[in-house]
Amino acid sequence: MVKFLKRKRRSSKSHRGNDSSGGSHGTGGGQDAGRSSNANNAAQNVKTAHRPAKAHIPLTRYIGPLVSVAGFVFVLGMVVTGKVDLSAIHIGSGTNAASAASVPSSIQPVSLPDPNGKSAETMSLATFSIQGFDSRKAKDAGILSVLASVIARVDIVAIQGVSRDPGGIKLLMERLAASGGQFGSQVSPPVGREGDMQCFAFIWDKARIQLTPGSVFVVQDPTDRMHFEPMVASFETRFGAVGGRSPFRFTLINAHANPSGVRAGSSTNEMNVLDDVFQSVRQYGYQKTGEEDCILLGNLGVNTAGLDELGKVPNLVSVGGDSLTDTMQTRTLDHILIDQTTTREYTGRFGLVDLQRQFGITQEQAMMVSDHLMLWAEFSVSEVPAYNGVASGVQTRGRY
């Protein structure tokens, strides 16, 4: 049982603008993610109207749900919870995300792939760090077309680097809708420190994936151990219930480690917080629904050797390993981490979307889209028993 305590204000991460009431509004395929009766009952004595940015939860033990935005509109009210016992550790402020280029990218818009071409037996999820994604960047038709085409190739993508300006996601969702597909989105409230804030987002193909109602929240970090608090949401496939099998249900932790917070041997290393986040979110999900499939993905800024305590979580593996995930293809920055003993739905296939190769653009143009490549992995659409599957088997790498 999650214990809810009255919140306290804190000054280390203030002025987030999270002063809206605890409702949310869906547009363009977004779904209601936070008014479930469970959340309301859990919050009993907690005042939820006009919440500040932070409520208190223990990263190492308890995680409580909170209302996130639906569709394109940020609703900055939050529900919940508890007490945290992590020591206060201050991490460097890092640098602001780069804004869109002031000149057009000169990338020619491209057509989106046929959404009917996706497999009926497997689904794909991805992580994509899009630097400074705001309305100005999205108004470049070439950049927007490339992003929409890349995202439409997978079933669900966790996005990092979204600006506090919601216009970019709105334009991207409109572009995806114009393709004839049906896509849903969730965007987090702004997270970070004053002067260096961003939003996380999930975008998914609604014909193939559905969001679990009331499952979206931002991990709370009142002692300021992480620069950008991860966003969490649970999903399931829509068509995996065949032959007596259940649809694949899973929880995603969308994370972005601050570059100054991943130094090897540093007491402020965020990899030594993310291990607690992973295990706490998984434990919370198991206690609530009995589901153990928890996947942490995002821009972690390190290779596998730099995962530190996160890399020491038993059976946790990076499916892409040390693949070079930056656009220059010189560094390993992005990961999709699964427990290979529980998430047996992983088929062993992963890959990177090389923007230059796929769209015939220059490296400079690719950098205007993002300084990261999109990393994806393939999973069965149905639950796989723990004694079966290929999660620990041979991996096959693909490349678009």
- Which homologous superfamily in CATH is the superfamily? Endonuclease/exonuclease/phosphatase
Oligomer: single chain
Distance between the termini: 45 Å
* Elements, N to C (H/E): HEHHEHEEEEEEEHEHEEEHHEE
CATH architecture: 4-Layer Sandwich
Q: Provide a count of the helices.
A: 8
Look up the CATH topology.
Answer: Deoxyribonuclease I, Chain A
- β-sheet strand percentage: 15-25%
**What is the average of the pLDDT values?**
75
Integer-rounded radius of gyration? 19 Å
The biggest sheet amounts to: 8 strands, mixed
- Helical fraction equals 10-25%
The secondary-structure class comes to alpha+beta
Describe the structure.
The protein has 400 residues and is of the alpha+beta class. It has one domain: Endonuclease/exonuclease/phosphatase (Deoxyribonuclease I, Chain A, 4-Layer Sandwich), CATH 3.60.10.10. 17% of the residues lie in helices and 23% in strands. The strands form 2 sheets. Strands 1, 2, 3, 4, 5, 13, 14 and 15 form an 8-stranded mixed β-sheet that branches. Strands 6, 7, 8, 9, 10, 11 and 12 form a 7-stranded mixed β-sheet that branches. A hairpin with a 2-residue loop joins β4 (191-193) and β5. It is globular, with a radius of gyration of 19 Å. The N and C termini lie far apart (45 Å).
